[in-house]
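Provenance

Sequences were taken from public entries as deposited. Structures were produced by running a predictor on each sequence independently, with no templates supplied. The record for sulfate adenylyltransferase from Tenacibaculum gallaicum is shown for reference.
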Amino acid sequence: MNVVKIATAGSVDDGKSTLIGRILYDTKSLTQDKLEAIEEKSKQRGFDYLDFSLATDGLVAEREQGITIDVAHIYFSTPKTSFIIADTPGHIEYTRNMVTGASNSQASIILVDARNGVVEQTYRHFFINNLLRVKDVIVAVNKMDLVDFSEEKFNQIKGEIKYLAEKSDYQNQNITFIPLSALKGDNVVNSSENTPWYKGETLLNHLENLGTEDTEEVSKARFPVQTVIRPKTDEYHDFRGYAGKLYGGDLAIGDPVKVLPSATTSTIKSIQFFDKEYARAKRGSSVNITLEDDVNVSRGDMLVKVGEEPSVVKQLEATICWMDKAPLQASQKYYIKHGANDVQAKITELTALIRTDFTGKEEAPSQLLLNEIGEVSLKVSKPLFVDSYAKNKANGAFIIINPKTNTTSGVGFIK
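Predicted structure for sulfate adenylyltransferase:
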């Protein structure tokens, strides 16, 4: 069964939590006690309908204010697909939460209130999905029941989003527009008779038909070694395997590989997962690999195909989303975690502050504040083997750690 990870985003009162609750309700994914609790709470609030947002807003503050604050993960399945939805907050002060939720997602749903159309928050949500190279974006034009299911209003919003898409530097993105009413259920799980002019799929059908192969871009194989397996038992006295998760592309038995940073070469001898052996490992697989030659490989090293080597650098140019209350300034020192490697780093230059409404950049800012996105240059204490984020998401991203507090201060995307 396919597993699809989805992020959601929307401005205040766009109906994001209600949409997720409606999906859970219509797919019969809510337990009986949860459904009874929603019914009771809806009656207490004087509603003559079920308030589906109660199915996802777990924090007390979220339920009291009717907003999403933290990232919540919701799991449900249909006969065709299993879904993991990262319900991310849309407010500007929670930009870091949205980046966190969308960073591991294969598709994204951006909600737009049909009454208000495209607003400032919509620009930010669309910008972040472009920055993170989310391949499939669904623009869910919600609350169509409050604009009498106007095709004209839907097409107006569609045109504004397409105009934004033309400004993006990520042109491989698939954008789908769906008119719906999360509260009433129109075009969420079931097709609506109120939109005879809409000939596309329902939201759930579209998500089911994405498939994991459609939402991941193939690139060059990268196998960062997480641990070296040496059982040292009589049966496996000479066994030496390298365990990790494969990113980007596939690896097969017989492939010539290079070990970084030593640059020694060998050939893949076997590929194992638990007690089974395979001829090929697909990207996304967590496997154990053995080599034909007894070469030196340690945690933090990387296996790549010969001729498909990444860049080996000590100077990085990156886009940063800042997540720390203490501002980022030039000359500050941090730790960078890139894959299995932890290295010291120094910010050498703040190049630009990026305006997330697609209006450009502010050159050479003095600092980056919490939730701001900017471009920086930095030096690291030892070479890293990297790709640009545009070519390989896993090998092109890193996190910045404050050495004094050990907190995650930011996330970076290598240019």
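The chain has a mean pLDDT of 86.
Helices lie at 16-26, 32-44, 60-65, 95-103, 120-131, 151-167, 203-215.
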